[in-house]
Amino acid sequence: MISTKIKNIDLIFQTDDALFSPCGIDTGTLSMLSVVDFLPDDKVLDLGCGYGVVGILAAKLIGEENVIMCDISEQAVDFAKRNAALNSVPDIDVRLSNGYDNVAENDFTLILSNPPYHADFSVPKRFIELGFEKLVLGGKLIMVTKRLDWYKNKLISVFGGVKVHRIDDYFVFVAEKRNRTVKKEKKVKTNLSKKLQRRKNLL
Fold it and tell me: What pTM, to 2 d.p., does this model score?
C-alpha cells in the first residue's frame, strides 16, 4: 500500500509487482503533475492510467464525472478501479483500452500520459497523432519521458509547437491544440500577397 500527498490531496494506492512503479509513485508522473493545474471545467483523459495516480488525483480535484482513465492492461484497470473506491471517487469511468481504441470522446481539455518510452516509438506516435483529434481547441496533451528530441519534433510536427519542462532527469512536454484552419488561411493570404507583389514588380 502506498500513502502519499500530491497537490495537498491525501491519496492511498494498492499496487502489485506486475504493475509499473509498484513501490512508490513514479518520479516522472510526479514531474508531469507538477506542471498541471486541474480546473473545474476540465475534462481529463488519463491515458495509460496504470493503478490510477493521475486520474484519481484529477477526480479528487475536479470531480469524478470529469475524468476518464484507460489502460491496455486488465490488471491495471482492476487496480485503478479498486484505488478509485479507496480514495472515495468510485464512479470514475475506468476503461480497458489499447490507447484510444475504446475512447470515442473527442472533447478533452487535458490528456495526460507517461508513455512506455523504453519501447519503440509506435505507441507514443499513436498517442500524439490521435490525441490531437481527441482534444478541443485550446486543449493540451501533456507527456513525460526521459527522451527529448523525438518527442519534441513529433509534437511540433503535429501540434505546431510544444513547451518543454526539464525536471530532474525527465522532460515534460505540453502541446496545445491550436486552430490549424487559421494558420492555413494566413498562409494562403501570405502567398496571395507575394503573388500580387510580384505582379506589381513586373509592371
Answer: 0.85
pLDDT of residue 200: 58
**Closest C-alpha to 55, from 20, 104, 6:** 6
Which residues 6+ apart lie within 8 Å of 178 measured at CB? 137, 138, 159, 160, 161
Q: How many CA atoms lie within 13 A of 11 on its CB side?
A: 27
Q: How many residues does the chain have?
A: 203
Distance CA 53, CA 79 (A): 11
Q: Which of 67, 58, 124 is nearest to 92 (CA)?
A: 67
What is the residue whose three cell numbers read 527522451?
147
- Is residue 8 scored above 80 in pLDDT? yes
Q: Mark 153-168 as b/e (b = at least 16 C-beta within 10 Å).
A: ebbeebbeebeeeeee
**CATH number at 27-202:** 3.40.50.150
Triad 157, 160, 161: Cα angle to 5°: 105
Q: Express each pLDDT in 76-128 by its tens digit.
A: 999 999 999 999 999 999 999 999 999 999 999 999 999 876 667 888 999 99
Contact 77, 50 (CB under 8 A): no
The yes-or-no verdict on residue 183 having pLDDT over 60 is: no
Catalogue the long-range contacts made by 160-166 (C-beta closer than 8 Å, 24 or more residues apart).
165/31, 165/35
Query: Would you kindly state where each structural domain of the chain is located, as residue ranges?
Result: 27-202
